[in-house]
Design goal:
Blueprint (H helix, E strand, L loop, with lengths): L4 E7 L5 E6 L7 H12 L5 E7 L5 E4 L11 E6 L38 E3 L2 E2 L22 H17 L7 H16 L7 H14 L13 H21 L2 H4 L37 H15 L6 H10 L1 H8 L5 H7 L6 H12 L4 H20 L3 H11 L8 H15 L8 E4 L7 H5 L3 E7 L13 E8 L2 E4 L5 H14 L9 H11 L9 H11 L1
Parallel strand pairs: 1-5, 8-9
Antiparallel strand pairs: 1-2, 3-4, 3-5, 6-7, 9-10, 10-11
Helix pairs in contact: 3-5, 4-5, 7-8, 11-16, 12-14, 13-14
């Protein structure tokens, strides 16, 4: 449902009521709604949601369906006590997560059944503690180190504050500090970027000023260098232990002709949080493959059990990701995992990968920034300006939100000196859409005009059918609009670990770093200039 909606969110009781605004309208699922609350209010503790049920005299009831939500409704956040801990040293002290979102993680010290990825209608949890629950933090928090190292640092900080004396850590103390930092970094990524390592080193000096280095420009250049080497050694140990995220890059797992350490490194490049998760504890690849076959059988039934399909897709996420990283052909992968090629599953897969909702975030930000985009487009001159003016004319006297979004995305590409038409091909009727056009398409979107709805202003610009094609396979059809197809294609690029189309490299960078706010600290000059103008 499109259009701005407002919710009154209670945290505990009436004495703590807060306002939540969602520009993209009511979320499609409870999971997306819970994630909106988590993101907007920075909630870190596990919770479930309740709503006022009119049939029950406005008493609070557990929220199990997004259909119960309406504009200006009151919802209640009920925090859930958590006594579960993880025995995995790489995930201890991880940030608490939300039951009620597909990205939530649960592990139990009492031997709970890890295969139950859905515990109830209103609590959804991932089966594996090896799955990350959050992306790189805005502020890196230095962890507690070993008892001995903390004692030495405490004394060193006191001496520094009193006399300005710097601490010269022993090799053992330095090793303890680097080990603790490496384990903390691993909670977010196995392949930290240069700026992330610098952020960690800076945070270390701010927390423990006695470790400041004299003779360096920043005071922590040496610690950054130590961290870089430590993460390399740490990955080597994890690879020998069989950790899939790093073992996938071992020499024995590389293709013929790429048997070099630096060749074709598979790592997160688009801010993925769960790039290559572990198989859930207590499971084997054989068990997971058997569940995949059962999932395939369920999908082919005339009366599908959608809840069971979602549960099985959730549980087989790690197996599916490890297959994706082997770079299979799309037709083959489509036959093995047909359930993935569905609008709702693409949204859920994106949340598993990034912990962020796809459609609501993308279209919500697009709608929020539309007026700013239009101001930029109207100021564009030359050939690009004339093209933009022609496209913007389709919005005149047309209140259809989908037409508006389609026009803004087309103009965005032209503004960036790219052309969305290289990706999107329109047909005036279904008969003119030749099968050969689909078969030859590596990556694209097709749109078939509805009768009486032409691009020159006739009708309201609606389409009879919009779909997505990958490697000659029509993987999605009957989508709402070209903008919705762009969102789904963007989600599939993540789900299948594909590269952005070269002819639309900057356009997809805007999708990722401005609309989705993923890895938004490093922008190309052209996209950086666009962002600055949008915020003016």
């Amino acid at each position: 449902m499109a259009g701005r909606v407002t919710f009154r969110v209670l945290f505990g009781g009436e004495d703590d009521a807060r306002k939540l605004i969602i520009e993209s309208g009511i979320p499609n699922t409870v999971e997306e709604f819970a994630l909106q609350i988590k993101t907007f209010f920075q909630v870190t503790e596990p919770f479930r949601l309740q709503y006022r049920d009119r049939e029950m005299d406005d008493q609070f009831m557990n929220l199990s369906s997004a259909s119960e939500l309406e504009d200006k409704a009151t919802v209640k956040v009920v925090f859930m006590p958590s006594d579960t801990t993880s025995s995995n040293p790489l995930t201890r002290d991880a940030s608490p997560t939300i039951p009620g979102t597909p990205s939530s993680v649960s592990s139990s010290s009492h031997g709970a059944n890890d295969s139950d990825s859905y515990s109830s209608n209103d609590t959804i949890i991932l089966p594996s503690p090896e799955t990350r629950s959050c992306s790189w933090p805005k502020v890196f928090v230095v962890p507690r180190f070993s008892y001995c190292a903390e004692m030495i640092l405490h004394s060193g900080n006191n001496e520094f504050n009193a006399h300005g004396t710097l601490l010269s850590p022993t090799p053992k103390t330095r090793s303890d500090i680097l080990q603790g930092l490496a384990e903390e970094i691993m909670k977010y990524t196995a392949y930290p970027k240069d700026e992330q390592l610098e952020e960690v080193a800076k945070a270390l000096i701010q927390s423990h000023p006695c470790l400041l280095e004299k003779g360096t420009r920043s005071g922590y250049c040496g610690w950054k260098h130590y961290l870089k080497i430590k993460m390399m050694n740490f990955r080597s140990k994890l690879s020998r232990a069989g950790h899939p995220e790093v073992a996938v890059n071992s020499l024995k797992n590389k293709r013929t002709g790429q048997e070099k350490p630096a060749a074709n490194i598979k790592k997160p490049r688009k801010a993925e949080v769960n790039f290559c998760p572990n198989i859930p504890r207590g499971e084997t690849r054989e068990n997971m493959e058997a569940e995949r076959v059962a999932l395939l059988t369920e999908v082919k039934k005339k009366k599908k059990d959608e809840a069971e399909i979602k549960k099985m897709m959730q549980h087989t996420f790690s197996l599916r990701r490890q297959e994706v990283l082997q770079e299979p052909a799309i037709p083959e992968f489509h036959n093995r995992w047909p359930a993935l090629f569905d609008v709702s599953e693409i949204n859920l897969e994106f949340i598993r990968l990034t912990t962020i909702p796809l459609t609501s975030k993308f279209l919500g930000e697009l709608d929020r920034l539309t007026d700013n985009f239009i101001k930029l487009f109207n100021a564009k001159g030359g050939v690009a300006g004339r093209k933009i003016t022609a496209i913007m004319a389709q919005m005149d006297n047309n209140e259809d939100i989908n037409v508006r979004r389609d026009c803004v995305l087309s103009c965005l590409s032209i503004y960036l000196n790219e052309d969305l038409d290289t990706l999107v091909k329109e047909y005036m009727d279904i008969e003119s859409m030749a099968e050969a056009d689909v078969a030859e398409k590596t990556m694209g979107i097709y749109a078939v005009r509805a009768v009486g709805h032409g691009p020159d202003g006739q009708g309201n610009g609606r389409f009879a059918d919009v779909g997505v094609v990958l490697e000659g396979v029509e993987v999605l059809h009957n989508l709402q609009s070209v903008s919705h197809a762009c969102v789904m294609l963007y989600g599939l690029i993540y789900a299948l670990n594909l590269s952005y189309p070269k002819s639309l490299k900057r356009t997809f960078e805007v999708y990722q770093k401005i609309l989705m706010d993923l890895d938004s600290t490093t922008l190309s000059p052209k996209v950086q200039a666009l962002k600055i103008k949008l915020l003016q």
